[in-house]
Amino acid sequence: MTAPAIRPSPFDVARVRADFPILQRQMNGQPLVFLDSAASSQKPVQVLEAMDRYYRQHHANVHRGVYQLSQEATDMFEEARRAVARFIHAPSEEEVIFVRGTTEAINLVASSFGRSFLKEGDEVLITWMEHHSNIVPWQLICEQTGARLRVVPISDEGVLDMEAFAKMIEGPVKIVAVTHVSNTLGTVNPIRQIVDMAHERGIPVLADGAQAVPHMPIDVQALDVDFYAFSGHKMYGPTGIGVLYGKRQWLEKMPPYHGGGEMIARVTFEKTTWNELPFKFEAGTPDIAGTVGLHAAIDYIESVGREAIAAHEGELLRYGMELLAPIPGMRLIGTAPKKAGVISFVVDGAHPYDLGTLLDKMGIAVRTGHHCTEPLMDRFGVPGTVRASLGIYNTPEELEYLAKAVEKAAHMLR
Amino acid sequence: MTINEIQDEIIDEFSLFGDWMERYEYIIDLGKNLPLIDEQYKTDDYLVRGCQSRVWLHARLDEQGKVQYTADSDAVITKGIIALLIRVLSGHAPREILDAELYFIDRIGLKEHLSPTRSNGLVSMLKQMKMYALAFQKQLEKI
Predict the structure, then answer these.
(1) Among the four A67, A142, A196, A224, which has the fewest Cβ within 10 Å?
(2) For residue A407, what are the domain limits?
(3) Does any domain span residue A7?
């Protein structure tokens, strides 16, 4: 494996862009302006090559083979786990579980934690700004156990109501599940404060980090979260691979999620005993190539510099909101003081679907609709929004073009 | 005019447009001018749910045995395309509607709007239009 290239600082966006082959494409005769990284980011050539190299030269199933190739694949797989542990500053790699993505990570905790620790009359606390994938798994387990889902409200700016949280945490809450960064509003939630308040009562906290990990340094020990979930494909890695970090004390108390190979210690028809962490939660052949790609994505992010990425994107976010705000009829949805990665908006007299369609014709990829946060759309009284979301490769010029295009589209629609 | 004659007429009209902007300006105008669905039908019963935009559709069989559609949408581009679909299919016998093959959408460069993944309600609406035609056809066969 090659060491990640050392990059000159300050942040050189032209050099970053050169690493992403897809950005050379044209859409409807216009250069592609990709502003949908919150849905899924593009992939640098370093990730593509790492996965290609893995399949060409090192592939075999992991953990079972006595032959060299299987050992190589296992080494690469476990190296990826160590890289993830370092990346989020997990105390140990046994607390890093590979899953398909954030959705599976949350389902794992909801199901496995829920079956052990939730009963009738208990409460699960989530917030109004959760993605459907941090709502529905909890609804399912609540239905099964008789526990109740409670929702912490937010302000008109999209800030979590911490006074309400302080009151609600006093109930019979057994777990708190909260997004670190809102995929629709961009709001950065005060995870450490939430964790401290929950821990005072011995309540664990799961943070959905899908929208945080690509944009800022993550330290699960500093956050002191009990569970942290994120996806590879939103952080320049491949689809189909994600991570659940969990504190050992909880993971050891939780039963397996899926049954199968790999997750067992010994199987008889009478009784099966579980493998140790993290394998207890990794039934079946894992997405080995995915972990190799994720490792390459981590190396890539670290080579560019996480602080540098956060600074670049922070500047873009501020600039983008400043450019869009003066457009007639513009309403920015999500104006929390602490934001990352996302600019959501509606324009009076222009349906988000219409705006998105016309922006597409101008080569701009944005997302329109409810962004899998329907309760949030209801909260703001809109059918959906247009969401421009940022990545490492976006430029100020692209945001200037976006603002002009939105103005033109809104004009056409009125 | 037959359904295909109307489709060909629309294709002719669209061939005059130079670029996507002219095409979409025209569709947006159609959307704005579409005779709205009667308010009494703009309810959940007549709602064709899409993830991106919502569509309401109502149909009746007139005295001449022709299907008359009215529809609405909250998105104006969706509505413009609805206006075209209604222009093509409305006022025809149920059998003709059932047999119709809609090729004009593709030919005027709006195919993407009729992709199921687009989830704008148009695919479901088209299906619903045919369902109405089928129901009316059965009704006519019984008489």
Answers:
(1) A67
(2) 13-42+306-413
(3) no
